[in-house]
Amino acid sequence: MSRKLRSFSGTVDDHRPEHALRIVPLAAERGGLPVPTQLASTLQRPLLILPAPQPLPQQDEHPGYGGQLALVTGPERIEAGWWDFGDPHRPTVHRDYFVARNRRGQTLWIYRELKQPRGWYLHGFFC
Q1: How far apart are CA 43 and CA 96, in angstroms?
Q2: For FRET with 17, which of 23, 27, 40, 50 sits at 20 to 30 Å CA-CA?
Q3: How far apart are CA 70 and CA 66, in angstroms?
């Protein structure tokens, strides 16, 4: 009888969203460990985080994605990563995150860079 390895998304102690989740082996099908129960974070995080943030078009300093975006919540400021001492794979981030909605009803997780040139980026989708 074959044993299947299961996995779950686990959190990592890092404030940078792109480094805060990882896939963790959970258990074999028989005799495995119980699934840990964790309460959802009080901060809103999307179910789908993009592998790399995508630049958003701007019109008069307002971000767009399928039309101009309406900011629903935010900002949530994330300034983290200084402890990685210049690691190019884990850069320091200085961002203000927002939940935004477009005219099509899509709910997005976007941020604006705090350092110049202060562009807007799409980082995830709420399902």
Answers
A1: 13
A2: 27
A3: 11
First-last CA distance in the chain: 37
Cα dihedral sign for 81, 17, 77, 36?
negative
Least Cα distance to 121 among 60, 66, 67, 50 occurs for 50
2: which 2 tokens?
Answer: 């074959």
Facing residues of 77 across strands? 96
Per DSSP, the three-state class of 17 is: helix
d(CA 40, CA 99): 17
Task: Give the whole-angstrom CA distance, residue 49 versus residue 43.
Answer: 15
pLDDT digits (tens, 9 = 90+) for 73-121: 999 998 887 777 777 777 788 999 999 999 999 999 999 999 888 999 9
CA distance 108 to 98: 8
d(CA 125, CA 108): 5
Q: What is the pLDDT of residues 2-21, one digit of tens each?
A: 444 454 455 566 556 665 65
Question: How far is residue 29's CA from residue 18's CA, in Å, rounded to a whole number?
Answer: 29
